[in-house]
Amino acid sequence: MRALRRFTIASKFSALLCVAVIAVAISSVQLSTWWQPWAAIGLPCVLVGAACLWIVQRILAPNRALFRALAGTVASYRDGDFSFGVRWDGGGDLGELVNAHNALGDALREQRLALVQRELLLDTMVQNTPVAMILVDPAQRIVLGNLAARKLLGDGKRLEGHHFDDILGHADPAVQDAFARGGDGMFSVGSEDDEDIYHLSRRNFRLNGRVHALILLRQLTAELRRQEVQTWKKVIRVISHELNNSLAPIASLAHSGAELLRREQYERLPSALATIEERARHLEGFIRDYARFAKLPAPRLTPVEWSRFIEQLRSQVAFSADLQPADGIARIDAAQLEQTLINLLKNAHESGSSPEEVRLTVRKLPESWRIEVLDRGSGMNAAVLANALLPFYSTKRHGTGLGLALAREIAEAHGGRIALLNREGGGLCVSMVLPDR
Fold first, then answer.
1. What is the distance of C-alpha 84 from the center of its chain?
2. Edge-to-edge strand list for the sheet holding 368-374
């Protein structure tokens, strides 16, 4: 910067000097005859001034070229082109300025190269991931669609620039139905013999100050097939265990009843028959619970007043309630949610918690409702928390392992989710979030 100031001052001084010399020369020519002797000096002065001006320009020409080059490279940096550099053979302040300028260009060039490499890596990962990814702008125009999305929704063609509703209008009816339901969920594409299962999730985020939607379609067929085999094995073990526990005493008591009849010991028959009836009813209830889980219908959403809904629950199980706001209304399947909360509240009472510590809270969130069942029982260890929501997993001696799994199924059918977590100070919190439609 000091060199630049010196250059500017020298240029101005030289120009002023030359102008002064020329002015004196011209003035001397136009003076009276008394000054004629001085006029002879005017022409040499003009020539000397012109020569000085030419010499100064020649001396300062490299500096001007350097400053023009620096200005040009700065303009290139501004436009994103970092391939230019400046060469200066001289030293001093100008040499330091040129070196700093070139170092800046090298740093910007390396950063741009690293950024390009990361963008290429990210684009390669996004394009080749098996999860179909679609980015939609606020005008519902597709900004990005990877290869999996093209294959699933566009017959392999590019999706960028198309309106998302137009692309969805040509998709499989199962895909259209999954998007029409709203929220996250699972759906199947194809026939029973050749069926693919997908999980749909949608998230909103801000990009360049505008809200965009990121849609993910993950194929779960192979993973679910493996889990399905494991689940069926577990189902067979559970059903075999329950059937043996019920049929073995029934068979034994039936044999004993026949012996009592043969010996005419009729007074012991009512007890044997009552036990047979009890085991048969237990087996009937067990099979009914499995059938209910397997044939859960789609929820029928209707407006429900939370205050009236909670009073209906209180007639079946005891708990304290906290409702905010008190006049809230939600669109839910009242029958399904009622059965779910009855099971959760009964579990809370069976956890070892005192009855007055069993609570139900319902709170309004910006776009959803949060429902929590709280107790002060023994809680759950890490292993139980990780598996409690899986079908057929139970820590109870005579449990079917369907209560929490059914609650999860109902919550997800409503477009929501459920989670379990231990409370500080002891106890369990079962949290369910349902969308406010």
1. 41
2. 320-324, 359-364, 368-374, 428-435, 417-422
Strands (E), 95-249: 132-136, 142-145, 185-190, 195-207, 210-219
Is 152:168 a contact under the CB 8 Å cutoff? no
Give 163's DSSP letter.
B
And the tokens for 417? 């989710």
Q: CB–CB of 214/200 below 8 Å?
A: no
Which of helix, strand or coil describes residue 334?
Answer: helix
Question: 190-244: per-residue pLDDT in tens?
Answer: 776 667 888 888 888 888 888 899 999 888 776 666 666 666 676 666 667 667 7
CA triple 432-411-229, angle to 5 deg: 120
What does the mean pLDDT of the chain come to? 78
Supply the pLDDT for residue 135: 92
Per-residue model confidence (pLDDT) at position 29: 46
For residue 124, give the nearest of 151, 146, 143 by alpha carbon.
Answer: 146
Q: Which residue has the tokens 């490279």?
A: 73
Read off the DSSP letter of residue 155: T
Whole-angstrom distance, CA of residue 390 vs CA of residue 235: 12
Which tens digits make up the pLDDT trace of 172-196?
888 888 888 777 877 888 776 667 8
The answer on pLDDT for 317 being more than 70 is yes
Q: Which long-range contacts (CB under 8 A, 24 or more apart) does 37-46 make?
A: 45/21, 46/21, 46/22
Q: What is the DSSP string of 365-432?
A: -SSEEEEEEE--S----HHHHHHTTSTT---STT--S-HHHHHHHHHHHTT-EEEEEEPTTS-EEEEE
- Closest by CA position to 166, among listed 203, 136, 122, 193: 136
DSSP 171: S
Burial 82-115 (b: 16+ CB within 10 A, else e): bebeeebeeeeebeebbeebbeebeeebeeeeee
β 417-422/428-435 pair status: antiparallel
What domains sit in the chain, N to C, each tagged with a CATH number? 2-112 (no CATH), 129-219 (3.30.450.20), 224-294 (1.10.287), 302-435 (3.30.565.10)
Nearest to 29 by CA among 18, 40, 39, 41: 39
pLDDT band at 32 (very low <50, low <70, confident <90, very high): very low
Report the pLDDT value the prediction gives residue 134, as an integer from 0 to 100.
92
**CA–CA distance, 437 with 415 (Å, rounded to integer):** 10
- Above 90 in pLDDT, residue 369? yes
φ/ψ of 427, rounded to 5, equals: 105, 180
Distance from C-alpha of 165 to C-alpha of 285, rounded to nearest angstrom: 47
